[in-house]
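Continuing the series of single-chain predictions for the mutant panel. This is the parent chain; the variants come on the following pages.
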Amino acid sequence: MEIKRLTKDDVSYIYQFSMTEEFPKEELKPLVQILQLMQEGDYECIGLYTQGELCGYGFFQKADDTEYILLDYLTILKKYRNEGYGSKFLNLLSHYYKDYKGIVAEVEQVTDHDSEEENKLRRRRFRFYERAGFERLNFKCSVFNVPFCMYVFRKHSLEQTQLEKEVAEAESAFYRRHLPPKIYNKMVKIELTRE
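Parent structure:
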């Protein structure tokens, strides 16, 4: 099993034949935006391969002023699911991104106004990240009115409050990098809380 950086052609193919099937339409960035972010050096797409065959992929957003990287999309292709590929992939990614303090993941919160099917998928995502070594953070984040639970796979020891502060600042940096200030101020809400 190995990971490789994906080319624009790889990403275009994956987007057309996998991402549109794997992710809800409203969660997908337009392909042209992903390719532009790659061109600008702010986005990296990594494929997981076994015996030369693609079995999963992860798309990551970077920001110059943070030591964290944001996991934007992650999937294991259907025929490879439930065989531990996801956890192995995340382990390989943690080594690949060794120069970062951690990998940040957003998972939509379970809500009363969404279907049980959607909430079931979100709970499954929570369990997946937690089994893979991510820890859930104690701050609120809402992007374009979608509430998220925040997770981080960290590679250093930090006091919890400091970790949450750093990840909240990183989350802010990811969105400030690509959104005009007026839209950022209206549509991105990050609030550190103590429960």
